[in-house]
Design goal:
Layout lengths: L5 H19 L5 E4 L7 E9 L2 E11 L2 E3 L7 E10 L2 E8 L6 E9 L2 E8 L2 E9 L2
Antiparallel strand pairs: 1-2, 1-9, 2-3, 3-4, 3-5, 5-6, 6-7, 7-8, 8-9
Length: 132
């Protein structure tokens, strides 16, 4: 067997796989803690969905601790795409109680993420923190 071809192919395959893995690790994947409203907050897990990135509520909390909230298990962030520099656009954030959604921009900087959504002239900016 001629191994001269195998070594370059193995090197190319390894580089291609490592490049793909680096591209897939966008800094957004993992679990993030939302901002707190009236003592309520949630954990949102980001990961791939239909070739883009989505966020699903995995745990919900109230002022007295963990609760079985109505948003538990719901996808609230949909269709995000990396645009470079730790920024993500093109998706939407959805209110689980009403189904209403708004265009969304995310910016990851280490263990914090700036979440910006606007509906018409009204905008809301929050800071979410990485849990894991």
């Amino acid at each position: 067997m001629n191994t001269h071809f195998l070594k370059p192919l193995a090197t190319v395959a390894a580089l291609a796989l490592s490049g793909g893995a680096a591209h897939a690790d966008t800094g957004l994947s993992g679990t993030w803690r939302t901002a707190t409203y009236n003592g309520d907050y949630a954990f949102v897990r980001f990961g791939p969905c239909s070739g883009k990135i989505c966020g699903v509520v995995t745990r919900t909390f109230g002022p007295d601790g963990e609760i079985e909230g109505g948003s538990l298990g719901k996808t609230i962030v949909i269709n995000m795409e990396p645009v470079g520099g730790g920024q993500f656009e093109g998706g939407r954030i959805r209110r689980p109680d009403t189904g209403q959604s708004a265009p969304l921009k995310l910016k990851v900087n280490g263990g914090t993420m700036t979440v910006s959504a606007c509906l018409g002239p009204l905008c809301r900016n929050e800071t979410w923190n990485r849990v894991q």
